[in-house]
Design goal:
Keywords: Cytoplasm, Hydrolase, Nuclease, Ribosome biogenesis. It is an enzyme of class 3 (hydrolase). It comes from Paenibacillus brevis. The longest helix is centred in the C-terminal third of the chain and has 25 residues. Helix 3 packs across helix 4. The chain is globular and about 40 Å long. It has a single domain, classed as Nucleotidyltransferase, domain 5, CATH 3.30.420. The protein is of the alpha/beta class.
Amino acid sequence: MKILGLDYGDRRIGAAVSDAFGWTAQGLEVIERRKEGTELDRIAALVREHHIEEVVVGLPKNMNGTIGPRGELCIAFAEELRALLQLPVHLWDERLTTVSAHRTLIEADVSRKKRKGVVDKMAASLILQNYLDSKSQR
């Protein structure tokens, strides 16, 4: 069963996909949010192209575990996806995934300009991999 992982942001949405066994996540692309609604069309296309059966959306929580305004936007986005795709959409705690993605890219000596283009995709991969790891431990 393939799962799509999304890192939802104001300007970009990082996308990652699992392998067919649900063991590993790999970055797919970064969806630019230029015109309202076009990102939903692209996500629906990815679901069809990759035969996705579930979606995981990163939920940014505050460090104390509460959900702030950014988290509320992600919850609304997840509900919109659920209605559009008619698939299970899970919210997954994404605290520090973008920070971790930035650190990894800096350690790999990726330039600031190139980091900007891949950090969201990498964060989506981390969100999805964490979700997959938690499922395999059950």
